[in-house]
Write a structure and sequence with these properties.
The protein is α/β, with parallel strands linked by helices. Helices cover 51% and strands 12% of the residues. Helix 4 packs across helix 17, helix 7 crosses helix 8 (219-228) and helix 9 (271-305) packs antiparallel against helix 12. The chain is globular, with a radius of gyration of 26 Å.
Length: 469
């Protein structure tokens, strides 16, 4: 009787040691990067001046406060949470939010303790630290993806689903480029039992159970599955059959004894849209001022490299199907448009867009400009005029848009951007279907924080040069 009433069982460890070690490495590197940013601020005397070891009590206090508060904020923001590791946008967003909270907390401490502090020191350290943290996370994510490709998955999944869905779900998991790998399956039929399922998952060395009933299932059985997992380190994923919906659009709506997932519909108006427009105008103005002289130098090199103008203009389709003249530095010979259909036919490409890895129309200077996306700098003028945005879907010419299907047309619900998910995920290496999928994901889930993350990721993508042709 006593044994039956005792529900607590010896805990079974099912944690993924590779994932745990990676999380510890990232946290340790976070502290090291934050310390580097603080030391750099002290060495350069931002907002203070003076010697590095000077007896400056406020500077010492705020250096210690930053070194304590910042890692705690990163931990509180769950920036190394297992579910967002290897997901660049989600991870970067949490790092940015944690940095903003660090600044607010430190400034609040200064106000409450009536301590005078160097605002430029705090701003400089936070900005430098944020950039270094994003770089560190990006490099660690690249290392992680290499290890995943070598057979070190982030999550070992035990799949429970109806027989008709097992193959498709297993293909989806195994196609996640090492993020998930299926280590065991259980057909969901009348004879399945939660306790037996958990025992099978433990025996297969899984760290996650994916429960995908697909249709009507007794909610009590789902609860029993959770109860059977209580004394293990297993995590539970439940398939909601939702496609391309970002986390911020999802919320749980309890109704009596049940819970439903509420999905917020995409909004293309409101305060956030106004703030995005203001960011575009201010950002493009600042960049045009900073990059004015380099752009003049690029124009001079283009004119010297091949006959023809330095700038290339083409009618592109933007927000709600409105056309505009898109400006770029010329990277092709002047007869490029006349040869396009000929090359498309020879290449056998009938998709909505046409790209070639070794396009003979590209000049030598143009190839260098494309390698680092320098040819797109004149689009800052388009952003300043309101035709484009700093971040958004890729702008396409009219003849490409004419090939759109009904799904691709939804890309036109947002202003086209100089950069976007297509830029940071592979550029021209992406298939047409993958490019559309990323653009639609952005259109339907965009936020200002997503824009900031994409802009921060763009530098890495441009320097890496993947898909640049």
């Amino acid at each position: 009787m006593t044994q039956r009433l005792s529900t607590r069982q010896p805990r079974v460890s099912t944690r993924n040691e590779f994932l745990r070690d990676y999380q510890l490495r990232v946290r340790a590197l976070d502290v090291a990067v934050i310390l580097c940013a603080i030391v750099l601020g002290l060495l350069l005397g931002w907002g203070y001046g003076g010697e590095f070891f000077s007896d400056d009590r406020p500077r010492q206090v705020f250096s210690v406060a930053l070194l304590v508060v910042w890692p705690v904020a990163l931990w509180q923001a769950q920036s190394t949470k297992a579910t967002i590791i290897a997901n660049g946008l989600g991870e970067y967003r949490r790092v940015i939010v944690a940095t903003m909270w660090t600044g607010l907390i430190v400034m609040s401490l200064a106000y409450l303790t009536n301590t005078t502090y160097g605002r430029w020191f705090l701003f400089g350290v936070l900005l430098t630290g944020l950039l270094l943290l994003l770089l560190e996370r990006n490099l660690m994510r690249r290392w992680l993806h290499r290890r995943m490709a070598e057979g070190k998955p982030l999550h070992r999944v035990f799949l429970i689903a109806p027989p008709s869905r097992l193959t498709k779900l297993q293909d989806e998991l195994d196609g996640s480029q090492g993020r998930f790998v299926t280590v065991g399956v259980l057909a969901l039929d009348e004879d399945w039992g939660p306790r037996a399922a958990v025992d099978a998952a433990i025996a297969s060395k899984a760290d996650t159970i994916l429960f995908a009933p697909g249709g009507d299932v007794d909610p009590q059985r789902t609860r029993e599955l959770g109860w059977a997992m209580e004394d293990t380190d297993l995590s539970l994923m439940v398939s909601a059959s939702l496609v391309e919906v970002a986390g911020p659009r999802l919320s749980v709506e309890p109704v009596e004894s049940m819970s439903f997932v509420r999905v917020d519909m995409p909004k293309f108006s409101g305060t956030a849209v106004v703030l995005k427009a203001v960011t575009d105008v201010v950002g493009s103005s600042v960049l045009l001022i900073l990059l004015g002289l380099p752009m003049l130098l690029i124009a001079f090199v283009i004119r010297r490299g091949s006959p023809g103008p330095a700038l290339f203009k083409q009618e592109r389709v933007g927000l709600d199907g409105r056309t505009f003249l898109c400006w770029k530095f010329r990277t092709m010979y002047v007869d490029a448009d006349a040869r396009r259909d000929e090359l498309r036919t020879a290449h056998g490409d009938e998709g909505a867009t046409f790209k070639m890895a070794d396009d003979p129309r590209i000049t030598r200077v143009g190839r260098f400009l494309r390698r680092f996306s320098l040819d797109e700098l004149p689009q800052l003028v388009n952003v300043w005029r309101g035709d484009m945005s700093l971040v958004g879907p890729r702008p396409h010419p009219m003849d490409d848009v004419a090939r759109y299907d009904d799904l691709a047309v939804r890309r036109l619900r947002a202003r086209p951007g100089m950069t976007g998910l297509w830029q940071v995920r592979g550029r021209s290496d992406l298939s047409w279907e993958e490019s559309v999928r990323l653009d639609l994901y952005y259109v339907e889930n965009w936020s200002l924080s997503m824009d900031l993350v994409i802009m921060a990721s763009t530098m890495s993508a441009v320097v890496g040069g993947r898909g640049a042709y």
